[in-house]
Structures are given as structure tokens and as C-alpha cells.
Amino acid sequence: MTADDSQPDYPVLTAPAAGIPDVVTDERTLQRAADAIAAADGPVALDAERAAGYRYGGRAYLVQLRREGAGTFLIDPIALPDLTPLQDAIGDAEWVLHAATQDLPCLAEVGLHPHTLFDTELGSRLAGLPRVGLAAVVEHYLGITLAKEHSAVDWSTRPLPEPWLTYAALDVEVLVDVRDRLRADLQEQGKLDWALQDFAALTSFAGPPQRTDPWRRTSGMHRIKDKRAIAMVRELWLTRDAIAQETDTAPGRILPDATIVELANRAPRDVAALRHAADPLRGTARSRARIAERGLTRYADRWLDAIARVGSMRQEQLPPATVPSDAPPPQRAWSDRNPKAAARLGFVRDGLTVFAEQHQVPLENLLTPDTLRRVLWTPPEPFNDKTIRHQLASLGARPWQIDIVTPLLLEAAAVAPVTDE
């Protein structure tokens, strides 16, 4: 089953069938909600709202649950930071989420951990839907649509406005219905086992891996080559992060990345020069320029202290321009550094592209590009079915992915032998 290319006008779901539930903010009401969920049957739809772009970190500011026979519950995890009564009530029932990796880390922070789950966003990718946002998936399977106008609001706001609560409740209103239709679709396409393996892997998802030197990902960093300027980016980034934690504010609302890079290049020594670092932003979005001007003024002493610290550093104290990585080199360098590995990579990618088109699955869902590059750049020895499968599994590939990719890797080795390198 694939999505129809036309875009009909779907009726809009504007309110929960049972009305907007009150937000649960005390332990007694939380226990009543848990008792109701425990007494009901079937999967449990869950969602969480964060304040990305407003607050520091990714904590949940609202948790939504719905179970047939129990109804919908909106929980305030700021007032109730321990939701283990809900964990006990759900037990080993299946969770249904949309884009689970976005919500699992913040749900774990409040004591909620899935035993099994069904991700309607990931499942929709495997089913071949061209659009996998929740509204699009609901349209495809149920013929109705959800209004999404409050998806990027500041959910740390208290009290939460009624339109926002309506939006939040609707996010779980029909999620189990979507799950039922999507599961049947995956079964019909012969992809249900693929999806279940991917879902099982998500139950242990704890968030993206912690990066070494996260300051190196400052936008615009490529413009900086001088090691002392690189050190200034590091000190300014760390200073901004400390301020963001102290004030519970998203770092980008303290100072934009572009201003950090500008400060590193200019190395201003006084407040007047410091403020000129906002000049390049004045021709861009007004909000970014205002943030830069406000941040430079409010925390001027701390930015100047960071710059001064770098100025007093000895050469050996400066960070290196680059850091070693265990990742394969960029693909563009393969042809020069290892032509046979480049040939194998091209062969396998071509084969996976054909498979993806035939089965209507995104190429990246067949195997992550990083995993494929690692196996081909540093192949196991000996290069055979057993060792390939072992290496793929050690890198996190699921059995269904290994079954698809391994034959292609063996064919590629026949085209460009590994042993002759």
C-alpha cells in the first residue's frame, strides 16, 4: 500500500471525543490515573511535549497517555517528576509512539521505560509512505487530519493554554487506531518482522551518543583555521553552555552560533568592540540580531573573560585544529586512498538503491551509511558470510538488515577482492 499522490481535503479533528482532560498535577490524581490505566486493556498511546528552542536540555513539560477503556490523561511532569505509578500501571503493555527517539529519553527521566513499543513514524517509513509526520500518517490511514499549529510552542509555559492542551490530547487520540491500520499494512507488505525488530531495538534507546568536544559542531566553525581562534570558540561555547544551564535557557537564545564565530575571529578586548560582533546579523533575521545584541550586552563580562583566558594560553594549551576519529574517511577520498573499497561501496549502494526502490523503503532504513562504510573500509578477516554478519551485528544492524546486505557485500568482494589490497 502506498500513499495516493493526490492531496484531498480531509476533515480536521479539532477536539478529543471526551473533551479536554484536566492536567494532572498532584499525586492523588496521578494514582487515580494509574489505576484507570491498569484496569484497562490494550496498547497505550504516549507522547511528550518539550520546550526545544526555549529551555536548556530536552526534559518533558507535558506527558500524554491514552488507553482504550481508561481515556486520555495529561500529566505535568514538572509538578510530578516521578511517574513510576504509571510505569507500574502500564506493565508490559505495548507503547505506541510517533517518532519514539524524540520522546524516549525525556520519558525515561520521569521513570517511564517501554517493554515493547510500536513507532508509527518508523513503521510508516518502512511501509513506504512519502510523508511520515503524524498528521500525514493519520490522513493516510484514517482519512482525517490533525491541526499541528502548536508543535513549536514553549511548553514550559504555565498555565498551559486550552488550545495547546487540545493539541496535546489529540496527539494520542487516534494513535492506536493508526497503529492497527499500519500494522496490517506492514503485514500485507511482508515487512512486519522488519518493523518489529526495529521497534525492539528502540526499547533500549537512551538518546544520541555523547559527542566528544561538542563545541566543534558550532555552526560556521569551518571558517576558523587559527588554533587560537578555535580555542576562543571552545571557551565561548562553554561559557554560553554554563549560562544556559544556570538560566535554563536554550543556548541559541543566549547567543547565536554565528556570533560566537564572529567573536572568535575578531577577539574583541572591550565592551564597545564586543557589541560590534552583532553587526553581521543585522542583515539577517531580526530575532537573531536581537538575541545577539541582548546576549552580548547582558553577559559582556563573561564573554570578555573567556576571550582573555584564551589570550593568556600557551601554544601547547590550545586545542588541536582537528581530532582523531575512528570513522572511515569521507567518501570523496576513497577513490584515491583505496580504489577497491570505493568500487565495493559503489556496488553495494547501487544494489541497495535497487532494493529500496523495489520495496519502497528509504535507503537509510536498509542500513545506516556509517555502518556500511565501516564494514567496507575496515572489512573483517577473513571476509566471509559469518564474519560479515558478526561485524554488522556488532555495529547495531538488525537481522533483517543483515540478511539483505550480506549477499551484496559478498558479491562486491567478488567484483573488487578484499584479499588483494
UniProtKB/TrEMBL annotation:
Residues 315-336 are annotated as: Disordered. It comes from the Bacteria. GO terms for biological process: nucleobase-containing compound metabolic process. Residues 226-317 form the HRDC domain. SMART domains: 35EXOc. GO terms for molecular function: 3'-5' exonuclease activity; nucleic acid binding; nucleotide binding. Signal peptide: none annotated. This is Ribonuclease D. It comes from Flexivirga caeni.
